[in-house]
Amino acid sequence: MSNPLLHLQALPDFDAIRPEHVAPAIRELIEENRALIARLTAEPGTPEWDGFVVPLTEAGERLGRAWGVVGHLHSVKDVPEWREAYNGMLPEVSRFYAEVGQNLALFDKYKALAEGPAFADLSPVRRRIVEHELRDFRLSGAELPDELKPRFQAIQEEQSQLAAKFSENLLDATNAHAEYVRDETGVAGIPADALEAARAAAERDGQAGWKFTLQMPSYLPVLQYADDRGLRERMYRAYATRASEAGKPEWDNGPLIGRILALRDEEARMLGYRNFAEISLVPKMADNPAEVLAFLRELAAKAKPFAERDLAELQAFAREELGLPELQPWDIAWASEKLRVKRYDYSDQEVKQYFPEPKVLDGLFGVVRTLYGVDILPDEAPRWDPDTRFFRIERDGETIGHFYLDLHARDTKRGGAWMDSARSRYRGPAGVSTPVAYLVCNFPGPVNGKPATFTHDDVLTLFHEAGHGLHHLLTRVDELAVSGIHGVEWDAVELPSQFMENFCWEWDVLSAMTAHVDTGEPLPRALYDKMIAAKNFQSGMQTVRQLEFAMFDLRLHSEVDATTGPVPVDVVLRLLDEVRREVAVIIPPAWHRFPHSFSHIFSGGYAAGYYSYKWAEVLSADAFEAFEEAGAGRGSLLDRETGERFWREILAVGGSRPALESFKAFRGREPRVDALLRHNGMVTT
């Protein structure tokens, strides 16, 4: 039987793909690429687009798609067989890409293409692709002396392995902890749906009572609602010390953090940069670390007074109303929920009953249909888990793209939510390939035959990931290297995702996507008004928390001395303490090990780039303001004309032009921070 990873012209056959297919398929595709590169670099003369870039693109895509399927399964089906298959090939794949990036003959061919007579005749998009290639060759060490290239390759290979191990340690440590509660008084306050899921989990283990884990759908209700302070503290401590020295030594991410930082620093210095942050910013909108740090500090200066006010109010409430003279970190979510109920007369749990999963999906698809005139329809394709679904996007009967939807938490799926490319739009000699995306979340699943219900935060997360998906799926660019999210500056890639979150606060959107899970009644206007009144509840504290993460990440990669080897974890923790003293209002206990689970920067591609969330939030808030202007006085911001312009100038163009040019084409001016501050209630009047 032929290897299904070698036949991905259509959709991946997840029913047929097995771990034993990985090594032979990936090795064959690597050798195919090596042979093609050898042939093309040996050909005399100046290369041309059709005879040089096109075959390289198509061969690279065959390998990239196959390896992408393997990486995806490693993330959503992390069983020993898939973990072994992924890790078994990871060094060879990393070595191959490092080898390509340093291939001087290939680099010379691209330079010859850029300097050749035909370059001026290429479209601006193709010229941009060639310029990106030249930049990436330099960042991959192509211009390094030959004697240094093996070391540079070894650095890339080890970094890939450490990133994978970091993620696996975190998943294993998350899955290892459970709290069994057998006394009803011990679960007081926890909502009924969370208790049903906890009881079912205990029964699967042959235990009485309720089982709580560190997976988000189980962990969050305990921290937010459990009246048992001891249970909250045990869960908080277990979560905060995952993958640290407090657990199994083989799952401790501390040594990995130190080694990763040293390797990144060595890589940067080999390429002539002073630190890794400088190299990370080369393909981004921001020019240098100082500019980013100034941006973060400006926001912190505006946000911290609001955060201090938020905390003082919470502390006073806890002291006077809850009998807690000293608010501990494991009390914050619980006390905040009590304060929200007291001040705004509603709870997250009450709102959650109005967001059953089917209705939320219908609402999301309705927003997309209204804004962009496309239909999202159920479709069929092999999937990796029976819980996942598959959809087709059409406009006027024409298929634009597809996406897989994997919403519910599983203990074999890594945490968080994300969108990834399964296939990108490309017009080649064989015609057009439409894009396909993976949308993955970790929401609670259905319990006892009732549909899953989502918190409003879950709905925001779903819209966020759908925004990434639309960026990938609604592209009109035919060149693979810059279609969808490819080639978009990383600090602008969150624009479409954060933009979509704004619609989750609009009455016409919410009223159309709610139906009480028991009665079917839509969200009452009075409850919506309370949600709006509470929209910026503790927004100051939430903002400085994100700024803390971003500043820690940037300073870790630009200020910490990693020139003498692995960075001791206490150095990392001291920097975090320093950042917290500058921007935070809540200081976690000394035993807290946040860096050990900061997978965004140690295994998720956000190294020296976590600031992107805040950077892009300025763009997304300003872009949404265009819809506010168009819909003013009309009762709805779902303006089709503005949606078409957003599609045309932002979503459709992907990375085919600089993000700032796309923003200005949509807004007609440079971005401003005013809308973000107004949306977050941080404008002093």
Automatic annotation (TrEMBL):
Positions of transmembrane segments: none
Any Pfam family hit: Peptidase_M3
Domain Oligopeptidase A N-terminal, residue spans: 27-147
UniProt KW keywords: Hydrolase, Metal-binding, Metalloprotease, Protease, Zinc
Cofactor note: Binds 1 zinc ion.
Domain Peptidase M3A/M3B catalytic: 222-681
Signal sequence region: none
Highest taxon, organism lineage: Bacteria
Enzyme Commission number, as recorded: 3.4.24.70
SUPFAM superfamilies named among the record's database cross-references: Metalloproteases ('zincins'), catalytic domain
Reaction catalysed by this enzyme: Hydrolysis of oligopeptides, with broad specificity. Gly or Ala commonly occur as P1 or P1' residues, but more distant residues are also important, as is shown by the fact that Z-Gly-Pro-Gly-|-Gly-Pro-Ala is cleaved, but not Z-(Gly)(5)
Cofactor dependence: Zn(2+)
Keyword Metal-binding: yes
Keyword Repressor in record: no
Family stated for the protein in its record: Belongs to the peptidase M3 family.
PANTHER family assigned: DIPEPTIDYL CARBOXYPEPTIDASE (PTHR43660:SF1)
Protein name (Swiss-Prot/TrEMBL): oligopeptidase A
Naturally occurring in which organism (per UniProt): Thauera sedimentorum
